Amino acid sequence: MMKAVPKEVIEPMIERIPLRRLGQPEDIANAFVFLASDEASYITGVILSVDGMARS
Questions:
Q1: Among 13, 17, 34, 42, whose CB has the most other CB atoms within 10 angstroms?
Q2: What gap in Å lies between CA 56 and CA 45, rounded to an integer?
């Protein structure tokens, strides 16, 4: 989806992200896998932002 967005639009977006990269589908998948795992068995009712600490 982002491949169609011009570089001039993406670069300012990346500048507002402390990790200096756009999120990938794997980033969302990794969060989901963690929340579905036994390691997250004590987590209830949380909002998990997978956003690279992006600022508006």
A1: 17
A2: 25
SS (HEC) of the chain:
CHHHCCHHHHHHHHHCCCCCCCCCHHHHHHHHHHHHCHHHCCCCCCCCCCCCCCCC
Q: With contact defined as beta carbons under 8 Å apart, do 2 and 10 qualify?
A: yes
Which pLDDT band holds residue 38 (cuts at 50, 70, 90)?
A: very high
Amino acid letter, 49: S
Q: Quote the pTM value.
A: 0.72
Q: Which phi and psi angles does 13 have, rounded to 5°?
A: -65, -45
Q: Which domain covers residue 49, as residue numbers?
A: 1-56
